[in-house]
Amino acid sequence: MKSSELSLLPLLCLLLTLEKTLISGQMMSSLVKPGIFRHLMCRNNMYPRSSVLRYPVSDDQVFWSEPYSDYCPPVYTSPHIGGQVWADPPLPSDTFRPQWNQLDGQVNRKSFHGAYKLKDGLPLNPIGRTGLSGRGSLGRWGPNHAADPIVTRWKRNDQGAIVTNPTTGKNILQMVAIQRSDNKLWAIPGGMVDPGENVSVTLKREFTEEALNFTDKANMVEQFFKEGGVQVYQGYVDDFRNTDNAWMETTALNFHDEDGSKVGQLELMAGDDATSVRWTDVDSDLKLHANHADIVREVVIRRNAHW
Ligand code: BGC
């Protein structure tokens, strides 16, 4: 490191502390903010389940405000979404006229990051370039809305006492994580919000389908979710499927079983889009799909848990 860089260190530390305070203090959308956040997962790679290479985009070419005159991303929409009930028809079209930036019948075409722009009749990714036009494997043009339940309990020993980390002295949090069948990464057991569906219904449905896969404790699970979760994030997700014209957004809520007597007791069983499910210790080594680890970090801050 150069000495000029060293002298910047205190300022950097201050900025990082401020950012942390901001994140813990208020809105999570500060995690993935248009104009600051640059794509990590959906740039400079092969589009998943295809042989389509994204057009190169360097760190400083991500934002639409940066000129990039040679930018010429391939157009790709996965053949498997054609004709699916959950997917939009192709564009341009004489008959399909989506109502952008609003509730379009039952389909929510609003972004949590404000009004997105349109270019040549197609919605523009609010973060910036991804190196790919079209919808890729996402069903909707513009925002595709998901919901993520972060179900947590405290880690306990055989005697039932909460386990703390010897270094930080803080309680260790555990969360239910599933292994996604599409990219094999561990993730929050979330899913897509169906048209017209209330997010609270999606949260319970996805958790039950992906992590429990049975219904014999249905009443208890129902009650646990009804008691309510704490919203920890609402906004853009740095998903590997995002394109210049279609992207993921999510609403994430934390459902915490404080004494471990409810969902904390359940045997987990992988189902639906999950190949595996487990209670996972939460700490700074946690590697999850997309920016799920950042979302979980917010739960850690709120619960003052070990990280
Ligand atoms: C997943 C959600 C995730 C979203 C964005 C959906 O397929 O079910 O858990 O937040 O994609 O990556």
TrEMBL record:
Q: List, in alphabetical order, the Gene Ontology terms for molecular function in this entry.
A: ADP-ribose diphosphatase activity
Instruction: Read off the Pfam families from this record.
Output: NUDIX, NUDT9_N
Q: Where does the Nudix hydrolase domain lie?
A: 154-302
Keywords of the record, alphabetical order, are: Signal
SUPFAM superfamilies reported for this sequence: Nudix
Q: Which InterPro entries match?
A: NUDIX_hydrolase-like_dom_sf, NUDIX_hydrolase_dom, NUDT9
First and last residue of the signal peptide? 1-25
Q: Which PROSITE patterns match?
A: NUDIX
Entries under CDD domains matching the protein: NUDIX_ADPRase_Nudt9
Could you tell me what this protein is called?
ADP-ribose pyrophosphatase, mitochondrial
- The source organism is Drosophila suzukii
